[in-house]
Amino acid sequence: MVEEKLKALETDVLILGSGGAGLFAALHAHKANPGLSITVAVKGLLGKCGCTRMVQGGYNVALAREDSVERHFMDTIEGGKWLPDQELAWKLVTLAVERIRELENELGCFFDRNPDGTVHQKAFAGQSFDRTVHKGDLTGIEIVNRLAEQVWVRKIGRLEEHRAVELIKNSSADAISGVLFIDMRSGEYVFVRAKAVLLATGGGPTMYKYHTPSGDKSCDGLAMALRAGLRLRDMEMVQFHPTGLLAGTHTRMTGTVLEEGLRGSGGHLLNGARERFMPLYDPLAERATRDIVSRAMFSEMRSGNTSPNGGLFISMRHLNQDFVKKQFRGMVERCADCGFDLAGGLVEVVPTAHYMMGGLEFAPDCSTGLAGLFVAGEDAGGVHGANRLGGNGVANSTVFGAVAGDSMAAWVRNEALRQPDPAAIDAAIAHCERPFEAGARGDLEPLREKLYDTMWEKAGIMRDAAGLESALDDLNSIETQLRTCSLADSNRSFNLTWHDWLNLQSLTTVSRAIATAALARSDSRGAHFRSDFPHTGALESSSFTSITVDGRVSMKPVEFTRVRPGQSLLKNAA
What we know:
The protein is α/β, with parallel strands linked by helices. Helix content is 33%, strand content 17%. α1 runs parallel beside α10 (392-411), α12 runs antiparallel to α13 (465-483) and α13 packs antiparallel against α14.
């Protein structure tokens, strides 16, 4: 073991990620056993990074008297094209009611309300009822701020600006021992031994040319899980949000979300000729699910009928401008910063990679196939199936984050810290050190651009076998070049080029899983559209993809534990 490079720490519960899943897990584990040593590790600063903080739209939950958890469940299953794990989906819709009450009454979140004092719920696409709870269009900031405050009050341990690079098993490789990190401030390696580890790093499909998450999101959790021998499901299911801001190549604002509520409240999508086109593609027009709207937009763009920057437009100007400015204040200001008038003009938009429905296979208690490793949030697969409804994402993170916290607190009662496999730590450090070895000096930017273009053009909104096979060839080429690329600066402290290299390693690994799973699924389903197999297979024989790090894909049948295609729980709902 490279002792001089390794700092060692110990904790009962180690949580990777400080979004809604990670923070809820920390709070629930602490509530279950205040004597536990709990540590939250995060790439950035706790409360200031992650995807939950970026949530604009809101939180789906059945609160209204006319709504029901059965109705929310059916929307989730049908929106997911019958691929969701029904026990996970049921847990999502039922526990969301508990979590939203906890957020309000125990954690202090202020959500928008109706004149009569009830919680306001707005319309989101793909749902049969207006059930999206929100704080204007800044819902994620409200939730994460309150969660972070409570974590600080409880003096839960924090490892900020620590990047997880490998899940380390015990010497017999049948359980997790801990996690290897890089302290980004100093560049030193840190091994944290833990009785239980939660993978809640978030997904973040930043391998696409247009993407919503910040650049530090690089699918590290999924890449580490694959290398640890765990199986991922539904990896071909990458959701594109229809309305990413298109502000030109000079700004990172391009790709950031203009949330679903714009279309839910009556916004129109226009092509380059300023003509509304969505009614030609779906009866629900702009309120169709994200996959349908994104494909319609991509088709319009391919036809060449585009805005000046190669995208399309969203228009709210036919609505009351005061309403738009009040209801969507954050987006009005964001658009103004980029020279657009959201309330009274046209804003350029483009479909943007937003969310990964795929992730680790896991049980309803958030345990995984590796003893001691738990998962929640976007790292977990199976909740959403082929398509996530807008507003179900933050519900997923908070619901299963809380479940994971409860499960880990129970798990560690009878567990001891495990000795790590020293060879695994040495191998992980050697991999991270590779770009500092002598080799061909390389510029990472061309490799990043090649990855962007490959995934956008060949494994994006529309796919076919030839494109996917070509994408896999490109990904192999990128990996080969990364292996031989060395860095000019050997200083480890805040070496952002080093972390760019690590980001690209993770993104390429996960991109290969996406393309391989997409090649294996020879039908079109939800977010996955094959132009060479445009039809959806029989719903009654639905299967999900399950992939390993070596690219082996199994098709596993969906278990219809609560409702079968052609049936509905609403017939028997009270």
